[in-house]
Design goal:
The protein contains 4 helices and 11 strands, in the order αααββββββαβββββ. By secondary structure, it is α+β, with helices and mostly antiparallel strands. The chain has 2 domains: 48 residues, no CATH class; 144 residues, no CATH class. Strands 1, 2, 5, 6, 9, 10 and 11 form a 7-stranded mixed sheet that branches. A two-stranded antiparallel ribbon has the order 3-4. The longest helix has 26 residues.
């Protein structure tokens, strides 16, 4: 057998490279890096799924820079008059119809000096044109968050489209003695920054609080 033929026979008979401790160091490092990258990708995907696929940050509304707010005593109207112009400030969209990919509800009770204030119907809805991701259908106080994207929505966005000022010390024209509760538990800080979650019972009171603070709400079936 010629020398060239013996070399070719040896190459065909040689076993494939093995992955193990006898591999060259650079090959083992490449294999380890590839495996680590795969684990990172899987971890990111799992994190995205567990968080609902949303990495958006909550919207904090600056009422001091917002014009057209209602300055009178309640009852307050639904704010539809300047809703279109206010959408940019509250980061809500004019939708042609409800989007239900992300769909949760809360209940809001508002009080001024112990008297209950009606949360009006059709906040966030222009019957002739559009509906926003946050709105009311009636005067029950039930807030509807209905969006094509799972992202955080804040109470300030709702009050902004309602055109009623809300911050750490003021509700509308009433300032200096503000109290608020979530599910019957007293809260501190700015209620406008509250991130809305399913079936919260939210109470905002300016001045003298009511004798009884609701801690829950009987949502209709399906809400």
């Amino acid at each position: 057998m010629s020398k060239g033929k013996r070399v070719r026979e040896q190459r065909r008979a040689a076993p494939p490279p093995r992955v193990g401790k006898n591999q060259p160091a650079d090959r083992r490092l490449w294999i380890g890096a590839t495996a680590l990258a795969g684990l990172i990708v899987v971890g990111v995907a799992v994190a995205a799924i567990s968080s609902g696929g949303s990495s958006a940050k909550p919207v904090y509304v600056n009422f001091a820079a917002m014009s057209g707010l209602q300055t009178g005593a309640p009852p307050w109207n639904n704010g539809i008059g300047e809703l279109q112009q206010r959408l940019g400030a509250v980061h809500l969209d004019p939708l042609s119809q409800e989007a239900l990919a992300f769909h949760i509800h809360q209940h809001l009770d508002v009080y001024v000096n112990g008297a209950h204030v009606t949360v009006p119907a059709f906040v966030g809805i222009d019957d002739s044109s559009f509906i926003t991701e946050m709105h009311t259908h009636d005067a029950s106080g039930v807030l509807h968050v209905e969006s094509a994207k799972n992202r955080p929505y804040t109470l300030g966005q709702f009050f902004g489209e309602w055109s009623v000022r809300l911050n750490a010390s003021c509700l509308g024209r009433y300032c200096g003695d503000l109290h608020w509760w979530v599910d019957g538990k007293p809260q501190t800080g700015n209620p406008a920054d509250l991130v809305l979650k399913a079936h919260q019972e939210i109470v905002i009171a300016a001045g003298k609080p009511p004798a009884h603070i609701p801690s829950s709400y009987a949502f209709p079936a399906g809400e």
